Amino acid sequence: MNTYVGVDGCSGGWFAIAIAEDSQLYYRMFESIEQMWAEFQAVPLILIDIPIGLPDWRNRSCDVAARKLLGRRGASVFPAPARSAINEIDYERASFMNYQTLGRKLSIQTWNIIDKIRQVDRLMDNDPRSRAVIRESHPEICFWALAGGNAMAHNKKTEAGIVERLGILQALNPFVESTFRAAQQSFRRKDVARDDILDAMALAITAASPSHLLGTLPDQPEKDQKNLPMEMVFTRRYLSHLE
What's the Cα-to-Cα distance from 215 to each of 26, 141, 199, rounded to whole Å? Predict the structure, then answer.
């Protein structure tokens, strides 16, 4: 199937955008990552906004590089938790384990997505095929690359940020705006926020880029103790002036 998928965590579960060969966009929400994988396991590439490779002795170089690249938008890149912390069910204990491993406490933002990190990690264990298809990215890195190497000027939660990101995506795919409006009408905002839709679109459009134009932060990702890459995928398709 020449369909490419972008997946973003949302309050209702996981929001996915799929791009078909004719550039049409399709959207779905899944309660679990296993449901998403069951639907899309035959596609060539799924980009997901969740840490996959997890550190066990120092902060991930992809997180550090992404924050530096994004400048004022760098705060949107939450430091990935230590692997030793993700199976703790109590924040204080998880934060302690993170400090013991990485020398820093666990941020509340990271703790809020810890269950989703566990879901993806469990999938990678239970179905090794997923490792070849599901790769980590970050929406703000995707937008940076899709905008020709320019970080977004506005926070994605603001009206200006929504308009800015929608304009970038619409210029790359003619079905973006209509799909964005339809998805908004299909889900309660408390389950799927507007920026969740745009983030999944940016991930999907990146995934659909020719494979030889995909790059990673860093260029040669390290592997974690489970041999999972600690990376963020982006496209070089619109970065020719930077090369």
Answer: 25, 11, 18
